[in-house]
Design brief:
With about 425 residues, the chain is of the alpha/beta class. It has helices at about 1-15, 20-50, 65-75, 85-95, 125-145, 150-155, 175-210, 215-220, 225-255, 260, 265-270, 275-300, 310-335, 340-345, 350-360, 365-395, 405-410, and strands at about 50-55, 75-80, 100-105, 110-120. Helix 3 links the parallel strand 1 and strand 2 (about 75-80).
């Protein structure tokens, strides 16, 4: 048993000290801090950014009402009347005196229309806001032509009210569903990237040892089964360490910028009020998903002798993870569909799909427990089978490019 812990801690600390792990953790932590301070950063830029737009009014009547409308839409947009020709205004834009130029005129029905020019129209916010202002002017002028009173106009454009209410007992409200959808979306990405990254790390670890012939020394003193599970747990501890650091950094950063995040993306994604059950389910399905794919990656990595062959061998496993993620993305819009319900019990998909369901729906506890039970049983079966493949796979050298090598590896264990 001592040998098991020696390999476990060796795997953990050797990966913990690598430049790749340290740099990745630091960069990810800095990104999380940047996201926490993003609202303040955006506000600081917005306060100092005023866009000047030249306005050529061919009617001598539209500039004043247009400016009044734009004040309610975009207060940072500065409209400047321009008395010169269109070509002169375009030259001013080219020199940088103005961000753009808009020409106002009447159409055949004596209603306002406009023409906007700028060096680039990639940023759609400015022309979009001006189009909204023109539309509001056109609506007001058209209503006057049709002799509509302001009350009639308001009634015409008053949005229809549609109350949505679920008849199912304890069903989530629309607001709760939107928050849950954002939260589950973020956590699904976390599960996806963590599982695919750390599972690949295990396969690469095994292949690296085989390619350097270290495996021949290890198997003489430690059984291959102990090696496999020691590496899985070692990388698992590494993943928990990295996630722990990132969660602490994210929590501290969010705590310091809580006021700036209120009502913004922080609240939109549902982080303002995370249910305890969602966090518990996220942790459970993350760990089970990791052990499922880590066990699969370990014995697939044992079948290759060269690092270059690792990606080819684990491609089917990677495609399974991608398929689960894509189905989860579909399920965000229809979490109660039959397709999502059925596939949430398939072990290779359940870490994402069952978590999606428990995060967005009020499903019976037995459904989540059944999925977890199936997942644990699959991990045990896969571990027993994987241990046999691993025990023979570490003794195989030479080119390995197909899953026929699994049969060869099992035969070597007999």
């Amino acid at each position: 048993m001592n040998n098991f812990f020696i390999i476990l801690f060796h795997t953990y600390f050797s990966k913990l000290k690598t430049k790749q792990f340290i740099i990745t953790t630091i960069i990810t932590a800095l990104i999380m801090v940047g996201l926490a301070y993003l609202p303040k950063l955006i506000d600081s830029f917005d306060k100092n950014e005023t866009e000047k737009i030249a306005v050529i009014d061919h009617t001598d009547e539209l500039y004043a009402p247009f400016k009044a409308q734009m004040k309610t839409i975009d207060k940072d947009l500065k409209l400047v009347p321009f008395e010169g020709t269109s070509k002169e205004a375009d030259k001013k834009v080219e020199k940088g005196s103005f961000e753009g130029v808009i020409e106002l005129d009447y159409n055949a029905e004596n209603l306002p229309e406009g023409s906007y020019r700028a060096m680039s129209i990639a940023n759609n916010s400015v022309p979009g806001n001006m189009e909204t202002g023109l539309q509001q002017m056109k609506t007001l002028m058209a209503s006057k032509q049709m002799n509509l009173t302001p009350q009639q106009l308001n009634k015409l454009y008053e949005p229809v009210k549609l109350d949505k209410k679920a008849l199912e007992k304890d069903a989530k409200t629309e607001e709760e569903l939107n928050q849950a959808r954002g939260l589950v979306y973020v956590l699904l990405f976390l599960i996806y990237f963590a599982v695919i990254m750390y599972a690949n790390m295990i396969a690469m670890e095994v292949a690296t040892e085989k390619s350097s012939r270290v495996m021949e020394i290890l198997i003489s003193s430690v059984s291959p089964i102990k090696q496999m599970f020691a590496k899985i747990l070692g990388v698992g501890l590494l993943s928990l360490t990295q996630l722990g650091v990132l969660l602490v950094v994210g929590y501290v950063s969010a705590k310091q910028n809580l006021n700036a995040m209120k009502g913004g993306i922080f609240e939109f994604f549902g982080f303002a009020n995370i249910p305890a059950a969602t966090i518990i389910y996220a942790a459970v399905f993350f760990l089970l998903g990791y052990f499922l794919y880590a066990t699969l990656a370990a014995f697939l990595g044992s079948l290759v002798s060269k690092i270059e062959d690792v990606q080819q061998m684990i491609t089917p496993m990677t495609l399974l993870i991608v398929a689960a993620f894509m189905m989860a993305m579909f399920g965000l819009g229809q979490p109660d569909s039959t397709f999502v319900k059925v596939t949430s019990y398939i072990p290779f998909f359940s870490p994402m799909l069952m978590f999606l369901r428990v995060g967005m729906l009020n499903i019976p506890a037995w459904e989540a427990m059944l999925s977890i039970g199936i997942l644990i049983a699959t991990i045990i079966v896969l571990a027993i089978f994987g241990a046999r493949v691993y025990r023979g796979g570490v003794l195989m050298y030479g080119k390995s490019s197909s899953f026929k090598d699994i049969k060869k590896a099992i035969q070597l264990t007999k």
